[in-house]
Description:
By secondary structure, the chain is α/β, with parallel strands linked by helices. The chain is built from 8 helices and 14 strands. The chain folds into 2 domains: 219 residues, Ribonuclease Z/Hydroxyacylglutathione hydrolase-like (Metallo-beta-lactamase, Chain A); 69 residues, Winged helix-like DNA-binding domain superfamily/Winged helix DNA-binding domain (Arc Repressor Mutant, subunit A), CATH 1.10.10.10. It is 30% helix and 18% strand. Strands 1-2-3-4-5-6-7 form a 7-stranded mixed beta sheet. It has a 5-stranded mixed beta sheet with strand order 8-9-10-11-12, with no helix packed on it. It has a two-stranded antiparallel ribbon with strand order 13-14.
Amino acid sequence: MKAGNTVQAGVVDWITDDIRRILAPNPSPMTGPGTNTYILGRGTDVIVVDPGPEDPSHIAVILAALAPAERVTAIVVTHAHKDHSAAARPLAALASAPVLAFGDAASGRSPVMARLVAGGLAGGGEGAHHAFRPDRCVADGAVLPCAGKGLRILHTPGHMGGHICVAFGDVLLSGDHAMGWASSLISPPDGDMGAYMASLYRLMEERWRLMLPGHGDPVCDVAGRLQALADHRRAREAEVLAALRTRPANAATLARSIYHGTPAALLPAAQRNVLAHLIDLEHRNLLACTDLPGPDTIFTPTDAG
Ligand SMILES: [Zn+2]
C-alpha cells in the first residue's frame, strides 16, 4: 500500500483550529513520507507532539510555525525511536520546554520480552534512540493542560514497550501504533505482539473523530482502520499457524513464504513481525519450541494450535 500523503515537508498544515502538522524531511521505506510533528493548541500555550528526527531545518520550521504569543509548554514524545525523538533535546533547549515521555527506549518492556532479553534474544532495536531520556515521565491516564481540553496520555505498548498515544479531545494521535497506510513494525524485544493487540483493542473502546498517525495522512474512519489493523494481524497469525502445521519452520523461512511480493527492503521488518507473532503464539501455548524463542528457533504447533 502506498503511503497517503497530501502535504510537503516543511510546510505548516492546519488540520483543525488547534492542530498543526509539519512533515519532517525524512522519507524512507519505514517512515513512508516522513515523520509528522504535531503542534496542539493555538494562540498561547502549545504542546509539540513528536518533534521528529534531529534535522535543524525541521526544528527551525517547528519554531517558525509558532505565533509570537505562543509558548511551547511541553514536548511529548510517543516513543524513543530516533525519527520521533531525536529532535526533542535540541528543540527543548531552543524552546525552553520540558521533554515528556513514558520513559527511555527500554521502558515498559513486558515480562515476556524481559525474559527473552535475559536469555540473549538477538536483533531488534531498529531505530531505537538509546540516549533518549525524558525530563519527566508520564504514566497512563496523565492529563496535561492544553487548549482548554487537556491532553490525555494513553500507554499503548506494542510497537515499543514505552509507546504512548495522545488523546486530544476526540482526536487520537496514534504515533507508530496505528497508521493509515501500513501496519507497524513489531520487532522483539522492543516490540511485543500480545501487548500490541491489547493496546489496539483498548483504543477501539473509545470513539474517535480523527486519527493523526506518526506517518501518513489523517485517518477519518478511525474505528474502521483500527478494526482493519486488528483483522490484519489475526489473519497473519492464522497464516503463520497454517504454514507451521504443514512444516515446522523459523521466522525467516515463514516470512519468505507468507510475505509474497514484499519489497526486499521491507523483508527484514517482515521477519521481525513474524517473530513477534511466533513469540506471542508460543506464550499463548499455541506453538512450542525446544529453546527460548528467537530468530533461529524452529516452532511447531501444539495440540491447541
Ligand atoms: Zn517507531
